[in-house]
Design brief:
Strand content: under 5%
CATH superfamily of one domain: Tetratricopeptide repeat domain
Structural class: mainly alpha
Distance between the termini: 33 Å
CATH class of one domain: Mainly Alpha
Helix content: over 70%
């Protein structure tokens, strides 16, 4: 029977002799901190105010007034969690320097904020502490009024009456406060009377005096016409009265349940059936009827949910949010396979999604190929443009670029390639093919590259190298630590290093990209990270480095500042990476832990929350 009382004095503090949050005298040993505090007071832009107060706190971590103003600012913008945090900080950061008037004001604001958060116990404790500090009856009167309202809001009407009468006895209430005291006392008194009447009605009903119970409940209903509990009690009493007149209480309840069910009031009907079965568990077919009503209610609820999902799917289609539309329509079909034209709409959404997805994928691979050509990495460029051609053969000038790259790869100065016997070439080829069969793409690529350097047209090396590179590019983003290949890894990798790498020390290892791959092959992720970081510091525009660094940071469990910057760059540049959800979660958690309020952080949180919503639509 709790009664919710809205906030009755939004200007209570204006009636008290407090220091206004705008006019609080800043006390800090840091002149620069005071300057930033003053900027926060005068600035009109909310984000700039927050930044100014945060800078003041950074310069003086014990700056009570800055914490207080920041808490008030968050409270005024309904960010009650942050408001509570900073108001608590203002209260505890430097208690020896906290003036009594300011402490009283902080306690009041903190209590009001905690009440918004539903922390009634903490709110009451702080409000009582503020009241005990008040040095005038005016302030005590206002605090008592607030405390009485809080107690009423919790349904503690007897305590509220005692508190409010105590406040009236102080004799310092203004006419407005006197009116409010009386209003709250009337509310509490009414609730106490209602409780008394309900208790008496329950007692009368239990003793069989149904007429008296009905009269008492009717009085309560006149005061509280919207109270569902009273309606249910009154309905039960009236049903019992009718049953008593017919000497069949169970029949009366059954009849009422049937009527409610026929009228479509299934929840009420179920409640009455439950009451009937509680009195008479085996009455007629009441249990069967109740289960039928429950099933019908469930069907109605399912129908409502399907209609909501269908409307959502249509709206997503209009907004070109194909993923959202697909999820909505799929949820409908999981429940009802022939619901309206859902399947047709789903097919439309999927085709639209595939069309847009194909275009964006081709564009991304094309851009990767251009970037690889710019950094003179013809192997990566070839793999990227092959992906473009496999998806959309006539896309832009892909055919021309592929021909140019293949021509470049075939032309190698003879002076760069050391002479090697046919037997050695055959041995090297067998090693490469074995790696290819084991799907150890990195050793396969390195060995085929060695062969191509030694003899460009040797057997089917160009075709195998292309396929190995393509497979490597697909799996390289997902690799965390090099895995052994069915027990062959130790011996096999030693053979690869001995046969492939030693002759190329003066030539291949000069390439940073190759060295990084070699470190990954060895399982030396730390060395690979250092090399990629140096490469990125020299050429920050190399987009292909960001996803590789991000995957390595994830493998090493790094979430430091450097790792977070790379994670953010991958998300902001929309670079291709398989573990995007994991990276989004890490970035979002970092934003939350820092309590950032800048626009970029908010956008990052919104992207993360949208992704979570799409992953878990229920």
């Amino acid at each position: 029977m709790k009664t919710t009382i809205t906030f009755i004095f939004p200007v209570v503090l204006a009636m008290l002799v407090f220091v206004s949050w705008r006019d609080a005298v800043a006390q800090s040993k840091s002149g620069e901190a005071i300057n930033w505090f003053n900027v926060g007071v005068t600035e009109s832009d909310v984000n700039k105010k927050i930044t100014a107060y945060q800078k003041a706190i950074a310069l003086d971590p014990s700056f009570v007034e800055a914490y207080y103003n920041l808490g008030i600012l968050y409270r005024r913008h309904n960010n009650y969690e942050n408001a509570e945090q900073f108001l608590n900080k203002a209260l505890t950061v430097n208690p020896d320097r906290l003036k009594k008037d300011l402490k009283l004001q902080i306690l009041y604001e903190l209590a009001s904020t905690q009440e918004k958060l539903g922390k009634n116990s903490e709110a009451e404790q702080n409000l009582r502490a503020a009241k005990s500090m008040a040095n005038s009856n005016d302030v005590r009167t206002a605090m008592t009024l607030e405390l009485g309202r809080l107690l009423i809001d919790q349904g503690r009407y007897g305590e509220a009456v005692a508190e409010l009468k105590n406040g009236q006895s102080l004799g310092a209430a203004s006419p407005r406060q006197q009116s409010e005291f009386q209003r709250l006392l009337d509310i509490a008194g009414t609730e106490i009377e209602m409780q008394r009447l309900l208790l008496a009605a329950e007692k009368a009903k239990s003793s069989g005096n149904l007429e008296e119970a009905r009269k008492l409940l009717t009085q309560v209903k006149a005061k509280k016409p919207q109270d569902k509990t009273v309606d249910a009690l009154l309905a039960a009493v009236e049903a019992s009265e009718q049953a008593a007149s017919r000497q069949d209480a169970s029949e009366a309840l059954y009849e009422q349940a049937q009527q409610e069910s026929d009228a479509g009031n299934l929840e009420t009907a179920i409640a009455i059936y439950e009451a009937l079965l509680k009195q008479n568990p085996n009455f007629a077919d009441a249990r069967t009827e109740m289960e039928a009503a429950r099933k019908q209610l469930a069907r109605n609820q399912v129908k409502e949910r399907l209609e909501i999902e269908y409307s959502t799917g249509l709206r997503m289609m209009k907004e070109h949010d194909w993923t959202g539309a697909i999820l909505a329509f799929e949820k409908i079909l999981d429940v009802e396979s022939n619901y309206r034209d859902t399947r047709s709409q789903l097919n439309k959404a999927r085709k639209s999604f595939e069309r847009e997805s194909t275009e964006s994928t081709v564009a991304r691979y094309y851009a990767e190929g251009i970037e690889a050509m710019q950094r003179n990495d013809m192997g990566d460029a070839l793999a990227a443009f092959e992906k473009v051609r496999s998806i959309k053969p006539n896309y832009r000038d892909t055919a021309t670029l592929l021909a140019e790259i293949e021509s470049t790869l075939r032309v190698k100065p003879e002076t760069e390639v050391p002479a090697m016997s046919a037997a050695s070439l055959d041995s090297l080829y067998e090693i490469a093919v074995e790696a290819y069969k084991l799907q150890d793409w990195m050793p396969a690529v390195l060995t085929f590259e060695k062969l191509q350097l030694l003899q460009p047209d040797y057997k089917d090396v160009p075709e195998r190298l292309l396929r190995a590179r393509t497979n490597l590019n697909f799996v390289e983003q997902a690799r965390t630590t090099p895995a052994a290949a069915n027990g062959h890894s130790a011996f096999f990798y030693v053979g690869i290093v001995a046969v492939v790498m030693l002759p190329l020390v003066g030539m291949v290892l000069l390439s940073p990209t190759t060295r990084a791959r070699f470190y990954l092959l060895q399982g030396n992720n730390v060395a690979a990270v250092r090399l990629y970081e140096r490469m990125l510091s020299r050429r920050p525009s190399q987009m292909w480095i960001y996803p590789r660094l991000a995957n390595l940071y994830l493998a090493l469990g790094r979430t430091d500042k450097q790792a977070l910057e790379i994670f953010k760059s991958v998300l902001e540049l929309n670079l291709a990476i398989r573990r995007r959800d994991e990276i989004s979660s890490i970035v979002a958690q970092n934003v939350i832990s820092e309590s950032r309020t800048d626009l970029d952080a908010i956008k990052t949180l919104e992207k993360a929350l949208e992704m979570e919503r799409r992953k878990n639509p229920n």
